[in-house]
Write a structure and sequence with these properties.
mainly alpha; 41% helix; flat
């Protein structure tokens, strides 16, 4: 009877090993299809962001140099350039462009205040009927009143402030 106890233990070990092998084989199914986590994976926008959207970048206001400047003034590596004359012209062009850039560089700061209010009548069937609710109009009026009191010297808006 002692051999049966050993056999029972051996059966439990064999069942556990068999279950592990079956789990391993089922878990590594090569036919399984992987799906990316997001629809934006590898997405490149069709229109790139224009960093000069307000046309204040000095580089866009000053004409570029006609020739690529040689910032390396070492004549030892350049066998075709044997005189210092071209380096002087190169330095003068770079300095003149940097002076123009400094002159055109914006000194004022812009503070954009984006106001989002969402109290619209959404039960309307057309866009013309989707107007501000009374609460939305009240919130907008109080916001413009606050802005006119505290930010009026800096505020430029196309909306009437009442």
């Amino acid at each position: 009877m002692s051999w049966m106890r050993g056999g029972r233990q051996l059966g439990v070990v064999a069942a556990a090993a068999g279950g592990s092998v079956v789990g391993f084989l089922l878990g590594r199914d090569e036919r399984r299809v992987s799906v990316d986590a997001s629809w934006t994976t590898g997405y490149t926008p069709s229109v790139k962001w224009d960093w000069n959207w307000d046309r204040r970048d000095a580089d866009s206001l000053v004409k570029p140099l006609k020739h690529k400047p040689n910032y390396n003034n070492n004549n030892n590596n350049n066998l075709t350039n044997t005189s210092h004359f071209s380096n002087d012209i190169n330095n003068n062009m770079i300095e003149a462009r940097e002076e123009k850039l400094e002159k055109e560089r914006a000194t004022a700061s812009r503070h954009l205040i984006f106001v989002r209010h969402g109290q619209y009548n959404l039960q309307a069937s057309t866009d013309q009927d989707r107007t501000l609710t009374k609460l939305g109009a009240c919130l907008l009026s109080s916001l413009f009143h606050y802005l006119s009191l505290y930010v009026s010297t800096y505020l430029s808006t196309s909306l009437p402030i009442s």
